[in-house]
Each structure stands twice: as C-alpha cells, then as structure tokens.
Batch of 4 targets.
Target 1
Amino acid sequence: MITLRPYAPSDFDACLALFDGNCPTFFDRAERDDFARFLSRHATAWHFLVVERDGRLLACGGHAESDDGRHASLCWGMVARDHHRQGLGRRLLEARIAWCRRTPGIERIVLDTSQHTCAFYARFGFRVERVTPDGYGPDLDRYDMVLDLTDASGRITG
C-alpha cells in the first residue's frame, strides 16, 4: 500500500538516503548540504511530502506558494533509485499539481530539474523556459520549466 503524507523530522535520514542514492546522476553531491538545510529549516513550510510503501520511505518532494499567491514552486522531488519507473514519482507529482490547482489564485507552477528528468515533467505539460549548461555541476544541466494553469483567456483551469 502506498501512502503520501507530510514530512516529519523523523524522516530526515531516510530523505538524505534518497538523495545519496540519486547521486551523481540526478543530483550533484555538492547539493547535499543544501538539501539537509532545507529539510531542517523549510520542509514543513514547503508542504514537503513523503511517499511510503509498506513502511519504507521511497520518495519525497515539496511545493510552496509564492508570496504574491500567483505561482507555486516545486522542489527536491526524488524517488529511491531502485524504485524508479514504478509510478511513485508520477503519484507524487500528481498530488503536488492537484494541491496547486485547488489553491485559489495559483496561475502557474515552476520548477528546476536536470536533463535526466525534464522529459518526465514534460509529459505532465511542463515546458522548458531556460537551459543552463552545467547549472547544477559538471554534466548536470539545469532546466527551468513551467506549467501554466490558465487557459488562453487567462482563466485558471483545473
């Protein structure tokens, strides 16, 4: 059984293990301290979620509303390396998008990711706005992406 729930401080080590397991392909090891600091200081404010199956933490990712309430940002999404391509990332992303759609006033969702996962987000309608070669580290490009939640008339959809 898969469970999505809010991050708790007791999840700290398991989330760091997810990060470590996804290095160096999906994250640069130099980002580890930033992730640990995020978990310690901001995870609850960023609506950080974890995904468990049979009591094992297998994925995590967060989202937060901007100060002006017009966009949401996704952050630190990851799935245990040995559980990629099993639908956990999809389920986590769908939950975060649904939260954004339910939040009045949010017009777009922004995120940054690498060349290794940009196609995953594109399948959900995210489009690339900018690419920064080596933006996260050597051979790890940064892709800034956006998902508009408004239709052609500017009306929020969903």
Target 2
Amino acid sequence: MVEAKGNMRVVILTPYKRLLDLSGVTEIYFPIDHGTIGVLPGHAPMVSAVGTGVVVYTQNEVAGFYKVSGGVAEISGSSVTLLVDVGEDASTIDLDRAKNALERAQNRLAAKASDSIDMKRAEAARARALARIEAVELHSGKSVQTK
C-alpha cells in the first residue's frame, strides 16, 4: 500500500494477533533497548530491536498508545512494522493490576539478598509494569500515582 505524501502505515503484530494496522500516521515513537526512536515520513530504511515501553503514534492530530515488550521493528518506505513479543492497547490496560505487578517486582528487587530471586526477571517485570502504567497515563492524559 502506498501512503499519501507525509503519511505512514503503522502495523503492530504479536505472534498471535494483529494489534494495529493504521494508515495516515504522521509520526511514531517506540522503545529501543537504550531509549526511544522517532520516525517521521521519509525516514531511512532500517531494522531495530524493540525494547519495553510505550509506542506513541499520531494520526489526524490524535495520539494513540500501546505498551510493547521485545521484538523487531522494520522501517521501509512509508511503513513501520513492529513485530513484538507482547503488546497491549493502553485503553485496555488494567491500572490496578499494573500497580500490583509493579509492587510485586519492587518487593522482589528489594529482597535481592535472597539467592532464590531471579534479578533479571524481576527487573523485566518492573519495566513491563512501569510501561503499562506510563501507557495508561499517556492515554488518560493525567499522571497516575504509583506507591
């Protein structure tokens, strides 16, 4: 599909589901391993790893938000495809569940003296919970308190 000048097509896929397939996107930002990358129409072709965080895109001056974890991004021509391990539309995230997951992960990290704690797994759980909370904050347009 060829996009109008100044627009892109954005597709977000998981191994199980097509989360988003949207034309007319004017900008997209997504997490990479060490930060965030922004893509505008006319971006050079590239492939990148996707980190854990929030995808923010704009279509018709309206922003949309997804929480993603892991995967690969391909930028080619006027399209951006994110093949992610896990993705969630911010509007479907249960904020209380995300806050509980954050608290559990922080408790595991605080108990790091214990040999039974898998620190990398606890850090990844914390990052996912924080990304969910951030996605909800962005979607709702207000700051959400985390303990």
Target 3
Amino acid sequence: MTALTSLDTTAPTATLTAQSPLSFPSFATIQTAAASSPTLLVVPITAVVVSLSLLVVVWRFGHAWTTWLYVAAATVPVAIVGASMLGVPRPLAVDLLGLAVCPVVGAGGFVVDVGRYLWASR
C-alpha cells in the first residue's frame, strides 16, 4: 500500500510510464517462505482460482464467443502476478490496467450478462 501512496501525482504521465512499484514475491521466495508465511500465497492463489472458476462457468454455460472475453479479463491478473514473480519489469499503467481495470470491467460485464439472461428467462 505504501508503494501506491508514494506515487507522484503531479506528473501523471511520467508516473504511469515509470517502472511499477508494485511487486510480488519471487517464485523462490514463495517456495522458501510458504510454510512459515502462507499469506504470501493469497494474491497468486486468488487470481488463479477466480480465473479457473470463470473458465469453468463459461465453458459450461457460455454460448457466445463474447463470453470468453470474461475469461480473458480474469486471466490478465494471473499474467501480471506471474510476470512480477519472474521479475519482469512493467510500467505502472500495465499493473493498474491488469490488476484493477480488467477484473472490474470483466466482472461487471459478466454480472450484467448473467443478469440479462436471468431477467429474460423469468
């Protein structure tokens, strides 16, 4: 959280294109610390579980090709977390889009789509 509060908001373009201060522990760190500190696994495991659960729902019930866009939006955070764990540098804009915008837009679209279906099938 301190990484986000320390961002320079007076120069938004420079801040968004600079290397992201957000980081996740590396794979090696997780392997050694998972037994003593399982909270390190919360974000990576949650990202994978959400992506897989949405994949199963869309695979089972999705009838249009556009429903796969929800799965794509849910997979973006997995890719961001994986890249961070591998040490791949990313601009802050990529992290904000991948960890905030894509999941919110994807989940919102999914809820609206399911709501429309349920409303129409009443």
Target 4
Amino acid sequence: MSNPTSIVRTLADLARLAGVSPGTVSRALAGKSIVNDATRQRIEALATQHNFQPNQMARRLRTQQTGVIGIALPLGHERRQHISDPFFLTLFGHLADALTERNYDVMLSRIIPDAEDWLSRVVRSGMVDGVLLIGQSDQFDVIEAVARDYRPLVVWGSHIPGQHHCAIGVDNFTGGRLLGERLIGHGATRIAFMGEIRTLEIAERYRGLCAAAGAAGIATPIQLNTHMASDVMGAEITANLDHVAGAIDAIACASDVIARQTVRILADRGLSVPGDLRVTGFDNLPFTEQMVPSLTTISQDLVTGSAAMIDALFARMDGVDAPSVEMTPRLIVRDSA
C-alpha cells in the first residue's frame, strides 16, 4: 500500500508507487489506450492522491506542441492605440474564451512593426501553435508573405480578390454603403467621413460611403483624418469639426469609438444629434445602445466572427486550408441617424 505522505515530484516517483514503468505512467496520464483501464485508473487515482502535476514543458517538447495560441495586434498605422480600445477588448474576449474552452493558453502581443520580419519572428518563435491577428493594419503585404509558408494564421480583416491569407471579417464596402444610404435617405447631401484610411478595412468603409453618394448624385463625402488612438482622437475631431463647420449635414464615423467622441464634442458645442447633424458609427460595440442618443451603426457580429476565426485556425492547424469568410454587415438603426 502506498504511503500517502510520500512526496511525488516526477513520473519516476509515481511509477515506483504504482509498481509500473515511468513510460506506462506517462501513457496513462496522457489517456493512451495502450494502457488497460484498471492500470490507468489506479495511476490517475495515485496522481490525484499525491497532487501530482505532469511536467507540461516536457510534454510539449515530446509532442512538439506548445498549447499556446498567439493573438497579436499589429499597429503599424496607429502606433498610439492601446489594447484597452473597446473593439480590441470585445473581440479579444470572445477569442480568449473560445481558446480556453479548447484548453489552450493565450499569448497576447501588441506589436509596433519595426521591420519587415516582425510577423516571421512571431510565427517562428516556437512559442505558439498558431497565430490570430486582430486587424491587417497597414501590413497587408507582410501578412501575405508569411501566410504563403505558414498555414495556422488567421486574420480579422478584409478579403480582396487573389488574397492568400485567411481573413475573417465583414464586407466593409457594403457596410459603408448601407450607412451612406441611411444618411442620404434622411436628406443628407453633405457628408463627412471621420476616419483615417490607410488600412484596408477603413478604406473600404469610406469607398462604400462614396459609392452611395455617387449613386445618389451628391458630392463625394469629405474624408477627415481621425486616428483611433484615444490620446489624439478628441483633438483631431475638434479640429475636423472646425474645418467643416457649417459645410456638412451628416457624419459617418469609421468606428463606434470615434462616433461616441464625436457626439460628445458636438454636444459640448451645443449641437444636437440627430437634430443638427446625423452621426453613424461602425462595429456595434456594446456601449452604442446605451449612448444618448443611441448610435446608428453597422454590426460586424463579433461573436460569429470570432467563432469563425477559431474554427478556421484549428482547421489550419490540422492541415486544412480553411478559406476566408466575408460576413454580411447589418445596419442597426437607432436614434443618432
């Protein structure tokens, strides 16, 4: 009978107590069918009794798997933006929940691309089994190059014809067009777009807005550079509003966060939304329904999108080249427009 006070630190210690070889203990704890049920149950009971935790590092070395998925936020276009951005936090939360349910750990990185090989360094680090990128930033070509040789890579972003990397995201062009049609349908003829268009996703939103304006025969929307970084966003919105004062009757914002700040600054100036100016966002983040006025926006369905990213990643980890997924945007009509 085993001594309940015995100290069990290694597989060899547990093997001596069980009267079997260390290899049998290793296979039993890994659930290998080669070990009969009675022996496996006895070893598992001993492991529980002695609070034995297998050496995860050694196991990972044997299997050539880390049990870790990297989630990276490339910020080549927006170097001051932080992980605390509501969009990042919302999408990251869905991804992290799904990964932990699959018994994977998460390694989160906020990356300011400092060289062309930044993504190569991540995927070749030996620290992760796969990589999820939140956004393409202005790094489309870098992502394309790595994806040609590295299969378990999935990106939240846009898909264009001929694209090699797997991207999951909404049809941003159609989303921008829907917002334009909504504003124009309520009489807007002089629309501003509040957003910086160096990234594919935001550029597509602006292009869709312009398409709606063109179809309606009104002027091309004025594009006003507005960064996502919270420390400069307010000042930029203020300057933009000064620049177009009296020349616009609606504002389509590149994101819900920009729209929230825009509505606040307009209120500070004594302007009402939607009375004086109609304002729309993009993303449908949780706070948009609680805003006053509540925000008309585009739903990207981050729940469905994050699940699609996880499914595509694990398919690719299993050797299946899961394709990109372009989700249909949905116009969420609320009080602001």
